[in-house]
Amino acid sequence: MKVASAPRLPFEGESSYHADYTAKKGECAEMSYAPVPCVKLPFQGDTEYGRSFSPKRAEPMAQAAAPPPKQTLPFEGHTSYQDDFVPKKGEAADIPVAAMPRAHIPFDGSTQYSTDYTAKQGERYEYPGQPPAMAKLPFEGQTSYQSDYIPKEASGPDMKVVIPAKAHLPFEGQSAYASDYVPKKAEPMDSVDLPPPAHPLPFEGHSTYKDEFGPKKGECAEVPYVANPAVKLPFEGDTEYGRSFSPKRAEPMVPAASPPPKQTLPFKGHTSYQDDFV
Questions:
Q1: How far apart are CA 262 and CA 104, in angstroms?
Q2: What are the CA-CA distances from residue 177 to residues 86, 168, 172, 183, 184 (Å)?
Q3: Cα–Cα distances in Å, from 163 out to 138, 145, 154, 160, 175?
Q4: What are the start and end residues of every segment in region (Disordered) (predicted)?
Q5: What SS3 class is residue 47?
């Protein structure tokens, strides 16, 4: 329901728009609306809708009837399909369910397939005998392959590949590689001087960076690092792990083979880079 608000006060100033404005025919005067401060209160006035309103009574809804249960009994009535049904040739008559044998009982009756069945006589299969033993002696008989064989040129009848019996012995013959081989003499390597170890002590010298350094606003002054002596002390309390601990014997570890040292001898040759270097 729309609530009418109180009209605003008219504008009483002077403006060229107000002086030159001419209302058109049929237009109403401009009326401004201001929001009502008490819009949250319910409307208590009298309206034609409120006088002619007659509340209706809610009627209870009837509960829907449950569907009838499904027909589980077999159909024993009479239908036109049953009267007009003509069984086809070769179809068996309808057997009642009660007269059918159970699935777990073997079938002992007689069928047309069983009556007309003619068993075929199986052919006897002769198994081959044991293969003859492999003859260790060479074959000295006559075969068509041997009689029709024509040896090709450069192929002897008794040519065989002879494998040397002493193949594992070293080669003691003469070769071009062995005659031209000149063994090189190994040159001794000079000992390498290791660099001095890194200085672990803190830097206590003097530098321009330290003199010109000015901490920015908000930064803290440099605090030297001081080791906490309590951290180095071992834990001497009593724990369940310490009581039930059984030390194991350390197995000796095989040292790994160190890699061969790299070539550290200085370069004593001559290069164009050294001549052109400025």
A1: 88
A2: 106, 21, 13, 12, 15
A3: 20, 27, 20, 9, 21
A4: 49-84, 187-210, 241-278
A5: coil
